[in-house]
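Q: Sequence in, structure out?
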Amino acid sequence: MASSGKSSGFTTKKVPDDLDAIVVGSGIGGLCTAALLAKTGKKVLVLEQHDQAGGCCHTYVDKGFEFDVGIHYTGKQNCVRTWQKVLKGGTVNQALVQQITEGQLQWAELDKSFDIVMIQHGEKRLEVPIKSSREEHKKTLLEHFPNEGKAIDEFFRICDVHTGTLDGFIFMKILPLWLVKLLIGTGLVNRLTSFFSVMSQSTRDVLDSITDNQDLKAVLSYNYGDFGSPPKDSGFLMQGMTVLHFHEGAYYPKGGASEIAFHIIPVIERAGGAVLVAAPVTQILIDSDGKACGVRVHKSSGDVDIHAPVVVSAAGVCNTYQKLVPQPVVSSHGLDDMFHHVSPGLGAFSVFVGLTGTSQELGLKAHNAWMFPGNDHDKLIEDYSRLTVQEACEEGTKTPVLFVSFPSAKDPTWNARYPGKSTCIIISFTPYEWFSEWQEGRVKHRGEEYESIKNRLAQKMWRQVCQQYPQLQGKVEYMDVGTPLSNNYYLGSTRGEIYGLDHTRERFSLDILTKLRPDTPIPGLYLTGQDIVTAGFAGALVSGLLTAGAVLNRHLILDLIILEAKAMFNSNNNNKKLD
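A: Exactly. Output:
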């Protein structure tokens, strides 16, 4: 039967026989793992607790408006320098997407000024566009900070040095665990890679070392929201990698984020597998020999056990080891100790706005705006986190960061699909504790006080947006609000986080490295997703490549590099013949 590209609701009749693997969670890490296994002939079942597949790559449509919930843009730049050297003009990320979608997914490039940084100083505002090329990025920074040329050059030099160590980080993920432990125990790991020494340097410390200009520091670290850890907590490598990630352009999927899952699902189905939604996994089954052997799916008609020799959890490390795997098993392998050192990232708060008018009529561009009420990101987050939720709702309170995106302006197919309409998405961070008293309530039935608080926060954020985009006043046709509790329900988060584990320096330490790997000490159980490499689409995508390689006991990274290099070589030869 030909695949429609759409996921299907769970029933026992739809579960394929003789499964080779089960993947828990259908985010890009899980789907990538499943698709790569399927391309080797493996029959894989992907189970998703939500009613749509895709995780952060899914969209929802309500009252004539479509919203993406997690994919707002992604870069083309490789995060591993060796890949860049081998592929030159191509990228492994791009090649990997081509493989798992059979070349069907297309991308639209955002404006060359893909991000706009807006820092408010009383009545004045510093506005700095971020360009999608290194040369133009530096040129723009120099135009706004003409006396900081030395600091700007040093910033990019350190970015290069730090991101150049990522090869070592990736290879520590795919080397056998016994070898990694040997390298750590003997100290040889620090002779092979400087990743762990550079990762100990915080973003704030590095910025403090190159300049005293607080505005410049704020602009150089503006997109900490792309991985969720403010400058004092994150290793500078995360900041540098995020900056360089967009130096060959920023992109958005044509047709919206749901196209990603739509084009991956047929690859899984053609090998005899399936992607089933409304299938909440409540337990990973462990047999008497201590091996993962399947999962338990909760249904109102009764729990269903499904068996397979391989289980891949794309549900996040916290969910996997604190909810799905029986605790005696977790403790017996010492995996619970990790949670003394790592924890979920910041809770996210989202506002989805439907607007009357096209992007052209409203003057909306294919870019994102990052709005800050000051130039000290750490202090803004700290001050905001100390407030009560009632204080945060007050008009004079400063929201530490607003990420403002216009998906309708990024997607060239939008006007044909939703004529006369536009959309805006606002994202910020809020403490989970502000909403924790309602965590036991049912979605959409949490009471008037909860609704009042989230709507007051949303309206306050919208007013801030309209100060920068006054043409949007009076154009709102639809507004919906998502709190950290919404993320728990729809994305399977644990404390409202959207980037998995917090991207602190400790998360990337040698001790944690041995636990955040595709393979686990529990035979038959593997991990994938944002917790295995880094946050975001690209990080989760690469995790899928690593995890599929671990399951197959094959270095798929090298296979992909060779495959893409051959394709580029053939393409270059064909071009020469045409010349």
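The first strand starts at residue 8 and ends at 9.
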